[in-house]
Amino acid sequence: MHVGEGRETGGRGRAGSRGTQADRRARSREALLESAARGLSRFGYGNLVLEQVARDAGYTRGALYHQFKDKQDLTLAAMEWVYATWTQEVGSHVERERDPAAALLVLARRHAVFCRRDIARVAMALRLEFAEQDHPVGREVEQGYEELLQICARLIEAGREAGSIPAGPPVRTLALAFVGAIEGTVIALAGRVPYDEPLVAAAAAGVLGLDPRDAASSSSAEPGGER
């Protein structure tokens, strides 16, 4: 009985140690993913140097390879991390809007603010780099782009049914134009804070057939979204 109790106590000690190690591992993974996202946004996949990613995150290259087997593995994980961050900072606010047209304008505004971050251009950079290539990273980028289009298409369709978005081109065509307007305006206005946010919303509204002046003058995203 005493032996059993000793093992239980020792097991708790080891569990506590493992918990601390797991926390450290999670923190290092987060730092490496953010560093990789910054590097991919700036340099793309082909020019990403893993040693630099590790150094910028404050870790060694060995620490990086302890968590990611190669550049592709790191890139796919970084993309997933960026998508999750986008969902938290943009998508969660879109879901709170009851009116589909208002939700689309929130998406435009929040996305503009999100794109001020140095991690935000991962998808755009990689989509251009892997265009017309059959590559795991390229396929992941296209899947993420398709999911965004589907979100926009569902909102457009719901807005037309509710009467808040006027009839016009086919839903998917309009969704493509909506996403294109957001991405193009964000790129053109990079660094033009605070004008980027209302102008992206105005461009998005124009594509939807709404009054761009109303979209541009509506309340802006919360300051907490800026980084």
From TrEMBL:
Residues 1-11 have a biased composition (Basic and acidic residues). Pfam families: TetR_N. Residues 49-68 bind DNA. It comes from the Bacteria. SUPFAM superfamilies: Homeodomain-like, Tetracyclin repressor-like, C-terminal domain. Residues 26-86 form the HTH tetR-type domain. Keywords: DNA-binding, Transcription, Transcription regulation. Residues 1-28 are annotated as: Disordered. InterPro entries: Homeodomain-like_sf, HTH_TetR, Tet_transcr_reg_TetR-rel_C_sf. PANTHER family: HTH-TYPE TRANSCRIPTIONAL REGULATOR YJDC (PTHR47506:SF1), TRANSCRIPTIONAL REGULATORY PROTEIN (PTHR47506). This is HTH tetR-type domain-containing protein. It comes from Actinomadura fulvescens.
